[in-house]
User: Fold this.
Amino acid sequence: MKFSIIVPIYNVEKYLKKCLESLVNQTYKPYEIILVNDGTKDNSQLIIDEYIRKYPDMIKGYIKENGGLSDARNYGIERASGDYLVFVDSDDYIKLDLLETLQNEITDEDVIGYNLIIVDNNYKEIEEIDKPTFNVTSGEEALANLIEGKNYFETAWTYAYNLDFWKKNKFKYFKNLYHEDFGLTPNILLKAKKVKTLDYAGYYYFQNDNGIIRSGSMEKTVKKAYDMLNLFDFHINESVKLIKNEKNKRLFESYLANAVINKTNELEEIEKKKYIGELKKRKVVDLLLDDNLFRKLKKSYTSVKLLLK
Assistant:
């Protein structure tokens, strides 16, 4: 089995070598590493060139105009030739046995999930975050299991994807939208026939609290909120139709509703009122589950809170 590791790169010269060292030293082969320079403005390309010289049979490097994370991922996927796709963000890194572990576990799944470890600026492990673990099940049941679990995260880089399955469904990350994983991962899971998750943390997520990605302006925060709302609309109009079981449908709708409602907490007062107006138009609160006392109380509280705005 061959893996294709897709790595979008933009202004990460400080972290890139750490990432690439974890990729080129995997205990399992064969695999290819596809590095996509998304119009970086720093010295990342010099590091890319260095690694291509060292590992010409393993690494493919591409340079494109800046189009954002989604565009860079899509670009890399189009050039992939492996049996399974693995995504790695260029300021993160992976365990050296990630591919070997996947190889040992994969049979013919469309999607196989694994867990992550959060590390700080000194690469010290802060916390391991584990999604629910289950054997092969349908995509619909997998999504329900994940949402019902304590930790559900739709991050692209904690799943491996069968490339034939991906291409057959013509999946693409939404360009020029934040929360691209929220926009695509649930749809991928719902279209999958076989999904499995592992009790294995193979991905190190670099939590750079001082980074530009996490210290954006209010203008950026507002865009993130409305991008989330656009993706909510996509799922309501498209993804929900894929769900056959009514209980799973309600669960997913409630999950979507919570996601967009939570965005109100990040907005300043004027923008918050406008955004809440959009939520009211969509009757988002009606989608919240109220099948137990806690959820009933939460739904009532949320309804009152939004009505007062």
Summary: The first strand starts at residue 3 and ends at 9.
